[in-house]
Structure formats: C-alpha cells, structure tokens
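Response to reviewer comment R2.3. The reviewers asked that we include at least one raw input/output pair. We reproduce the pair for Histidinol-phosphate aminotransferase here without editing.
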Amino acid sequence: MQPRDLSDHVAYEAGRGIEEVARELGRDPSEFIKLASNENPHGPSPAAADAIREAAGSVSSYPKSTHTDLTDAVADRWAVDPAQVWLANGGDGAIDYLSRAILEPGEDVLVPSPGFAYYGMSARFHHGGVREYVLDREADFAQTPETVLSAYDGERIVYLTSPHNPSGSTIELAAVERIADETDEDTLVVVDEAYGEFADVDSAVALLEGRDGFDARDDVAVLRTFSKAYGLAGVRLGYAIVPAEWADAYARVNTPFAASEIACRAGLAAIDDDEHVERTVATARSSRAYMREHLDARVWPSEGNFVLAAVGDATTVAEELQQRGVIVRDCSSFGLPGCIRITCGTEAETERAVEAVNAVLAGRSTEREEVTDA
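Raw output as returned:
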C-alpha cells in the first residue's frame, strides 16, 4: 500500500529554529537570535497571552461560541458580514478552504515566483495544477498588472501577495482591480495580506465592499493572519474575507471547528490590542530602515516585517551567520540562491544582525581578494 503519486509535490521549508540550530552546533540556545521566520520580536499580544492562560481550563469543549464571537469581531473590524469571514488554522488553512471552494480536478492556479510555496502546494493537494508569473529581481520585484496578465491563461485562482514575501513589494488596489477586470468571470483573485499591518497600502477588502471609489466585486478574496503583527504564529489562526455571495460555502468546505478554542480566545483578545500592534509596526519600520541604511549589501525596499538582501552565496552566508549566533532565512528555497531574508527584530537584534552580516561579507570579500592575489 502506497500513497498517491506525490512526485509533483514540494515540501514547505520553514525557517530554522533556535533549538534546532543550537543542537546541531552543540551550543547554548541563549547564544542565538532567530530572524528567519518573520515572527513578532515582541512576542504575542500580552492580552492574548493572558487569554490563553485563562482558556486552559476550557479546552475540553469544542469552540463553537468563541468561534462565532471571533468571526463577529473580525467582521466588525473590517465592516463586512460575518458570513464573509472564514476562520482557519492559519493563513494556509484559509488557502485550503479557497482551493476546496473553487478548484475542480485539473484546474490551475497562477502564483508569483518567487513566492509562498503553499499557494501551489494547496492546489496540488486538491488535484489542481500550478503556473507561475515571474517577479523580476532587477525591477525590485515590482507587481504590475502587465506582469500577471501576460502569464494568465484562464487559471481559476490568481494569487497576489501584498506585501510580497520575500521581497516586501506591494500592489496598488487599482492594479488589483485591473487584474480582476481582465481575467475571466470564473477566476478568483486572492490578495494575500499576511503582512498588511506593516504596509502603507490600503487593504483589498475595499474591492469586495465597493469602498473608496471602487465598485463592489464578487471575484476578489483577501487573506489575513494573526501570526505576524499580533504575534500568534504558534496558535495558528488566520482567515479569508470572501465575497458576500459565498455565504453558504464555508460550512461545506471548512474543517469542523476550524480554529481551536485557545486560538479563538487569543484572537479575540489580540484583535483589540492596538497598542501591541502599533509597537510591533513601529519596530518593523525602524528595523527595516536601519538595515537598508547600514547593511553592506543590496537591500530591496520592503513594506513587510523583513528585508531581502543580496549576499552572493546565500547558503554559505546563512551558515556563517549561524556560527555567529544569528539565524536568517536562506532564500534558495524561493529560487533566490543569492539572497537572504532577515526578519525585523528589536533594536538590539537588528544591530547585532547587521554587524554579523557585514562581518561575514567583509570576510568573504577578503578571502576572494586573497585568492585573486595568489
């Protein structure tokens, strides 16, 4: 007995953790900082942490009422109908729900390259195919309608990422509108706004609801998460905001009790913790500005809580940074073997990361000069 043919599937490569690297190198975990997974350097919302502790005694019950309460709270935050909010086990769970609701076997999705691997993974899990549009490194990974539409060939789902991971570029709502206008009526344009809180760009929810001068649409959906700005990556909580016409679909495609009791209670507390989000966003903006100014490498403009830097041999640089106690993301798995992605940390973490990267790059430059002189 064997599983079905999975030869076309790829494994998701997560950023390496402190415990994993410390064990591998035989060192104390306290020697390391992790800037590899775009996590919140201030930890979870304090209100959410309190809610998690208080919820411990209620986890024997299914989260029906808290699931409803959080759905209502998210709907209120975005001024949409609760039926438009699809809670999920992380943003990737919301991607799965959209795949279930849209894709027939053999239908394709169109995804950015480089980009989040799970867009394509979910399509393949649901017996669909994957095609790509390329975001050009030399054009600063600019997201334009022409780039997407030139690759479009009738795919059922088109994924846009704003801010884009791993570059941090964004896409304007007028560009999203044009892509939706010029794709087929049966194509859903999904705007992944996992890092939306960090960006100076309006949410595509305006397109669903016909706000800010746009006409209301039934062919756009938005993805959001509690993992980044709210600091709840460990409880796995995200959601999709879908067109109003889809009200009946969620109950038919979601996993029963799609978000756990603890996740829902944490989300209910976090969504009102504006102070924590504001602090987190301010830290990210300061950190990415510092890295752009002080890293001795090309650093792309970013609207996320990370920056992308060109360092030559990313795998070697990342390994040498680990020796110095700094864990970053080698972007070879994104198809960018010359780049690393560095999460925005606290002021102290950011300064340490910049110092370490510059030291590694200076050492590698000296090695090359010595080889040339020899």
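The chain has two domains: 18-43+274-373, 46-270. The CA atoms of residues 76 and 325 lie 43 Å apart. Further pairs are available on request from the corresponding author.
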